[in-house]
Input
Amino acid sequence: MQSLQQLLEFDRLHVWHPYAAMPNLLPVFPVESAQGIHIQLMDGRSLVDGISSWWTCIHGYNHPRLNQAAHAQIDRMSHMMFGGLTHQPAVDLTMKLIAITPAALQQVFFCDSGSVAVEVAMKMAVQYWYNRGLPQKQGFLTIRNGYHGDTFAAMSVCDPINGMHHLFRNILAQQYFAAAPQIKFDQDWQKQDIESFATLLAKHHDHIAAAILEPVVQNAGGMRFYHPEYVRQAKALCEKYHVLLILDEIATGFGRTGKMFACEYAEVCPDILCVGKALSGGFISLAATLTTQEISASFATDEAGVFMHGPTFMANPLACAVSLENLALLESYDWQSKIRSIESQLKAELEPCRSLAAVKDVRVLGAIGVVELHNLVNMQTIQPRFVEEGVWLRPFGHLIYTMPPYIIEPSELQAITAAIYRVVAEI
Ligand SMILES: Cc1ncc(COP(=O)(O)O)c(C=O)c1O
Output
C-alpha cells in the first residue's frame, strides 16, 4: 500500500493544483474526509474550516439532507443531456432561482462553473446587441481589482495586474477599466467615486455591450467592500447609455453578505446575473446565468438565431437536485440572524488585529472577515502555521480572510479569529 509520504510525493510531481507551479513548490495537505465544519486530514489532524471550500460549502460538509437529495436523484438518473430533453430538478431549480432573485430575472441558463457563467453572460450581452442591430457593441466596461474567473473572456474583465494580462496580450480582448471604487461600504457616498466609470461609458458606449461588476464586494481581486450607491449609479449610467449591466454574484450570492444577493443593498436589478459557488452548498459544481424577458426575447426571431452556447453537462440533474435542497435548507432557518451574529463576532474578534504591526486594515461584512497586511503573505510558512493552529484558511496576496460555513458555532469561529491573531502577531 502507498504510504502517505508516497501519495504526497506523487501528488507533488504529477497532480497540478490551482495557481501552482509544477512540480508543486507549496505544501499540500491530504484530506481523509470532512464532516460539518471539520476537515479530517489523513495524518489524523482535524481542522476547523474557515473558508467553506472557496466559499461554497455554506452548510458544511457531508450534510445529511444534501446527501439524501443526491442519493434520491442518483437512483433516478445522475446525468441526462439537456439538448432536446428536460427534467424536474432543472425546472424546479429554475423556479426557485426566479423566485429568490430580483423580479425581472425570468430566464435561467445553467452551466458548470462560475467562469463559464460569466462567459455565458458576456456572450449573451454581445449577441443581444447583435440581435438588436448593433453588432459593434462588443466591448465590456469593468472596474479595477475585479475577479470574474479564469477562462479567456472572464479573464479579460479581471484586474489587468492581478490577472497577469501581460502574459496573454495578443489573445485577450482589450476591455475598458474604470478606477476601483474608493468609498467604503459604510462611508458617506461621494459622487466623484463613479466619475471614471461615467467618463469611460460616455466616451465608449457605442462599443460597449455591458458593464460587469461584483456588486458591493470585490472578492478574489482584493476582498474590498465598496459603497452600494456605486452599483446604483452604475445601473443608472448603463440605462442612460444603452449598455447592459451584468452583476457577478458568484461569490456574494445566497446570503454571504447578509442579503440573499449583494445587489439588494443597492436595490438594483441587473440585466444579467451570474451565480455559482454556494448554489449547490459546495456539494458539486453548478452555476447559472439569469436574464430578463427583454434580453431573452431578442433571441426569439429567425434572423437572430439561437444563443450559441450549450455545455455537455448543462443543468446536470444531480447538481440541480442537490442545489434545490441546499436552497430549501437555507430557507429553513433564520440565516439572516446567523450571518448577523457571525458578522458581530468577526468585528469584535478581528478588531484587535488592527493594532498589530503587520496589519494595514481590518474589515468585516456579513460572513466575510478580512485582515489586510502591509506585505505579501508567505504561503510557504503561513499555510502550515494555520494547520498547526487547527484551522483551514487560504490567504492570498496581502490578505488573510475567513468566509466560514454559516453553520459555524461561536466557539469554532473564535478558534479561527484567535488563530488569525496569533499567526499575524508573529509576522
Ligand atoms: C466573483 C467571481 N466570479 C467568478 C468566479 C469564477 O468561478 P469558478 O471558479 O467557479 O469558475 C469566482 C471565483 O472565485 C468569483 O469569485
